[in-house]
């Protein structure tokens, strides 16, 4: 909001230019006193000084009264310029894989922040911050899906929940892609006033758990008009899964500080993700490093634009009452003085 001072009728201020002319024509004094004195010299000295002082002060008060009345007529006011944003936002459900394989270090990192999970979390947060006018929700899954955040415009709260996540927080093992997609679809279906519905599924594995297969889940999403963007994470080579603490999501280290390798994980088959995106009129992506993933979310951000309308309007706070009150006070003072201290004697 931007505020500034202005006059509603500024042309009235031109009347102020007449006040010096009025003062000049009025002269320094008013009517002469009618008292008789025994000496003309005494009358001249006393009358001239008193007449001059009284005339000047009363004339000044009269001019200031008129000036304040002119200012009040000009309509002083504060103008408050406001801009309102009316956005036809997109409803977006983020579906985020928290299976153990997301702890693999194959995307250029060396600690927890460089795992598939760590890189994906940071990119997701950036994506959320770029979409202030969209309702965004979060489904996380491993062997079963959980709602981490319903659709909301309170993105700070959503990001806080994202920060609380770690690999191991879901104790049911596996990758339930179909169930997670169906859960996201159900949440989007509950949003009746949605202009556009989107699911962004990020995973590094094959569907091996759950009651609903990925392809039927994608068909359900397409039936309610939701697009599905699918992202397959990780390189196309076998990778070791380092040992980690499931209670904290932190790596375990050997005596020399080195990571402790456990099982060897094979690359996932992402053909199902491609089928899902085609059925739901979206797009399938592959990301093998952080830059790939950032570019993917940037492209989705460009593809799914939010319609934003700006409405500008101005409200006013009138201030005319203050010069009007001042004029009334000066007029009252003039009347009091002219009838008391500077009272004319006939």
From TrEMBL:
Upper classification of the organism: Bacteria, Pseudomonadati, Verrucomicrobiota, Pedosphaerae, Pedosphaerales
Stated name of the protein: von Willebrand factor type A
Pfam families cross-referenced by the UniProt entry: BatA (PF07584), VWA_2 (PF13519)
Annotated VWFA domain residues: 91-300
Residues passing through the membrane, by range: 6-25, 59-79, 319-337
Origin: domain of life: Bacteria
Biological source species: Pedosphaera parvula (strain Ellin514)
Keyword flag Membrane: yes
Keywords: Cell membrane, Membrane, Transmembrane, Transmembrane helix
InterPro entries the UniProt entry points to: Aerotolerance_reg_N (IPR024163), UPF0353/GerABKA_families (IPR050768), VWF_A (IPR002035), vWFA_dom_sf (IPR036465)
